[in-house]
């Protein structure tokens, strides 16, 4: 899926990032808001506090997290907003703060967006 990418918010912004959306419910530590170079902070796209705490960014818990997170996203306004942005923008960059690049909410979001838009999962 070429038009939706994911990236750590701690990485430098690049001209080919496209429309940059932070999808964390909590602001990432150690980064100033001005330095993040965001177009949008969509807090509501992040997993609920309860789900985030249950997951704890433990890789072996990721399948259960992804399943529960998909349920949270189903029909949510945040997902609808991201679907709209992915359709309207040439490129959508989902930013996240987690250290693990393979097991985080942005990975799930990119997959869900791809499935909803018919461009495939990540």
Secondary structure layout plus pairing:
Elements: E1 4-8, E2 19-22, E3 40-41, H1 49-55, H2 62-73, H3 77-88, E4 92-96, H4 105-117
Parallel strand pairs: 1-4, 2-3, 2-4
Q: What attributes does this structure have?
A:
alpha/beta; 4 strands; single chain; 4-stranded parallel sheet; 122 residues; 13% strand; 4 helices
Structure overview:
By secondary structure, the protein is α/β, with parallel strands linked by helices. The protein contains four helices and four strands. Strands 1-4-2-3 form a four-stranded parallel sheet, covered by helices on one side. Helix 1 runs antiparallel to helix 2 and helix 3 packs across helix 4. The N and C termini lie close together (7 Å). The mean pLDDT is 92.
Number of helices: 4
What order do the helices and strands follow? EEEHHHEH
DSSP E strands, number: 4
Q: Report the C-alpha radius of gyration, rounded.
A: 13 Å
Question: Class by helix and strand content?
Answer: alpha/beta
Overall body shape: globular
Mean pLDDT: 92
Quick summary:
The protein contains four helices and four strands, in the order E-E-E-H-H-H-E-H. It has 122 residues and is of the alpha/beta class. Helix 1 (49-55) runs antiparallel to helix 2 (62-73).
């Amino acid at each position: 899926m070429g038009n939706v990418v994911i990236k750590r918010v701690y990485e430098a912004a690049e001209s080919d990032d496209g429309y940059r959306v932070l999808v964390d419910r909590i602001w990432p530590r150690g980064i100033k808001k001005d330095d993040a170079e965001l177009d949008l902070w969509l807090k509501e796209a992040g997993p609920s506090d309860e789900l985030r705490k249950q997951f704890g960014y433990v890789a072996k818990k990721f399948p259960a997290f992804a399943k529960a997170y998909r349920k949270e996203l189903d029909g949510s306004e945040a997902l609808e907003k991201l679907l709209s942005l992915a359709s309207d923008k040439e490129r959508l960059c989902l930013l996240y703060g987690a250290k693990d690049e393979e097991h985080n909410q942005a990975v799930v979001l990119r997959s869900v967006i791809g499935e909803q838009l018919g461009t495939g999962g990540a």
